[in-house]
Design goal:
The chain is of the alpha/beta class. The protein is built from 12 helices and 10 strands.
């Protein structure tokens, strides 16, 4: 899910060279705190692989203004306090010229005041609209945000005649952001939220909350969470026999989700990026060649 959000990242870095040229030391150091441990390690792992691959290609071509690019990776562990600590270390000790990283919205939001204060160009790899709204001077992000995805899902629900939904979300930056967007936009699509509840990223059993949905007149369920949470919810959903259509945020659509849920994911709907199914895009689509080229290079380098 995260790979496609990094394709344009190093292109953006090149546009920041006016800042980088004022650093005398070689090479150009870019800090990259990403999620490399725990159940969400596959997210940061793909990000790290991609950044290393693209840096290698840039350096092979001569680097930036003749200077090699060096990434300094740290594990932000999916914890806000750790992310803050790693970002401070990158700025104060490693003297990085820019930051590219932060895998989750939950860990992204607390680091924004730091990089804004120190005027460090920062490209965040998490999706929440709150990362860039209101607009920041030094902070950017690459994934499609929850505002866009919420609109896509609600529009599709409306086309299916759905007027009443149950909303589930995690208590973190990503879940809260999606919940806010669904709540704000649903009325404009003629959709009423008849059930609204939260759970945590640490929950391993969500069946008690899901069971409550059976007592409502909801016509569908939408879940907004990331990492392992969508997997757990989907499995619990099937275990209790909920037959309502299940919609997931864009964070759920990944190979890891499909592998973990197997046949239980059949019928689950989400809003996916062009990265998935790129081979089916028309040749006239300018993103097709870029995406397929990236996928081929990644598979050749890492065998996956």
């Amino acid at each position: 899910m995260k790979k496609q959000s990094i394709i344009g990242t190093l292109i953006i870095i090149v546009t920041l060279t006016w800042t980088l040229t004022c650093f005398a030391a070689e090479p150009i150091r870019i800090g990259s705190p990403v999620l490399l441990s725990g159940t969400g390690a596959y997210v940061g792992g793909a990000e790290k692989d991609t950044l290393e691959m693209m840096a290698a290609d840039l350096n092979k071509a001569g680097g930036i203004n003749g200077r090699p690019l060096e990434f300094i990776f740290y594990d932000e562990e999916g914890k806000p306090d750790v992310a803050v600590s790693m970002v401070k270390r990158l700025i104060q000790k490693d003297k990085v010229a820019a930051i590219v990283g932060i895998s989750t919205s939950w860990t992204a939001l607390p680091i924004i005041p730091i990089v804004e204060k120190d005027e460090i160009p920062t490209i965040i790899l998490a999706a929440a609209i709150k990362i860039v709204d209101p607009v920041k001077k030094w902070v950017f992000k690459t994934p499609a945000d929850d505002r866009i995805v919420a609109a896509k899902l609600l529009n599709y629900m409306q086309s299916q005649g759905i007027k009443r939904i149950a909303l589930m979300s995690t208590q973190d930056g990503f879940g809260d952001g999606g919940r806010s967007e669904i709540t704000a936009q649903a009325p404009s699509y003629g959709i009423n939220i008849v059930f609204d509840d939260k759970y945590t990223m640490q929950d391993t059993d969500i069946t008690p909350t899901l069971s409550k949905i059976k007592k409502t007149d909801a016509q569908a369920v939408i879940n907004w969470s990331s990492q392992r949470a969508p997997i757990i919810l989907t499995m619990n959903y099937r275990q209790i026999g909920l037959e309502l259509p299940l919609y997931q945020s864009h964070a759920a659509f990944s190979k890891d989700f499909l592998d973990a849920t197997g046949k239980n994911s059949e019928g689950v709907k989400t809003a996916a990026m062009k990265f998935y199914g790129a081979e089916k895009l028309p040749d006239s689509d300018p993103q097709k060649k870029v995406i397929l080229g990236y996928q081929e290079a990644y598979k050749k380098r890492y065998g996956k």
